[in-house]
Design brief:
The chain folds into two domains: about 5-150, no CATH class; about 155-250. Helix content is about 45%, strand content about 20%. The protein has helices at about 5-15, 20-25, 30-40, 45-65, 70-85, 95-120, 125-150; strands spanning about 155-160, 165-170, 175-180, 195-200, 200-210, 210, 215-220, 235-240, 245-250. The chain is globular. About 35% of the residues are buried.
């Protein structure tokens, strides 16, 4: 399997969450699945692109209602964007991840707006207003995500805990961070979800999450602690500044 085939397989999987999405494609026991895993294990740029797609998929999952299917043209639009920067199959070294990722992330941003717009178009007036708010929220978050994924030293961290799940993207070179979750429940009045990086047992406050029933997120520059991310660092989301962690990620 070459670079173009691997990227096409991953893009198809990303746009098929009902079929299990990226993880189902990676666990596929068929010969195609075996070839895909072998290629990813041997190809660092494609492996990094998989990390980026996983992050984008987590964002898209917050925008796409289960009852909405992507239109047939969507796959062609995404694959066209992927193809614009694809390396020739015979080339031993593909284009740099930075140059390949940007058009793909831009295509994913268009997907977010399109899917949320479809949801608003099918809804009542109040629901359309909510869809508009969600589109604006996701547009800002996707712009921040695009900037971090363009960082050649970006890091992705999976979060898990009593609050469900989430993801963190850190641009080690740019010093910027995005954290988001679509599973955190509402908090009592006066409390907010707070983000910390823990290093050597010491917590450094990063910021508080914007929260809605659909998405909780924080985005901005990291201050108070030096990057890059280090082995042993942990990212924490707590209920209030002094609360118990509800999401944790890192080693």
């Amino acid at each position: 399997m070459d670079h173009a085939e691997a990227r096409e397989r991953l893009a198809d999987a990303l746009l098929a969450p009902r079929d299990g999405g990226l993880e189902a494609a990676l666990a596929d026991p068929s010969a195609t699945g075996v070839e895909l895993r072998a290629h990813l294990a041997a190809c660092a740029p494609c492996s990094r692109e998989l990390d980026a797609l996983r992050a984008i998929g987590a964002l898209l999952a917050t925008a796409a209602p289960d009852s909405l299917a992507a239109p047939p043209s969507l796959r062609e639009r995404v694959m066209a964007a992927v193809g614009e920067t694809g390396a020739p199959a015979a080339a031993p070294i593909p284009l740099r991840p930075r140059r390949r990722l940007l058009p793909l992330v831009a295509a994913m941003a268009a997907v977010v707006v399109l899917v949320a717009g479809l949801a608003g178009g099918l809804a009542l007036v109040g629901q359309r207003q909510e869809a508009d708010r969600q589109v604006a929220e996701l547009r800002d978050l996707m712009a921040a995500t695009q900037a971090i994924l363009a960082d050649p030293a970006f890091v992705r961290i999976d979060l898990a805990g009593p609050g469900g799940s989430g993801s963190v993207l850190i641009g080690s070179s740019s010093g910027r961070l995005v954290a988001f979750s679509s599973t955190l429940p509402a908090l009592p009045a006066g409390l907010r979800y707070e983000c910390f990086i823990e290093r050597g047992g010491v917590r450094t406050w990063i910021g508080w999450m914007h929260w809605s029933p659909d998405l909780a997120y924080w985005s901005g520059p990291v201050s108070g602690i030096a990057l890059p991310w280090r082995p042993g660092d942990r990212f924490l989301v707590t209920e209030g500044r002094d609360g118990v962690p509800v999401l944790v990620g890192g080693s």
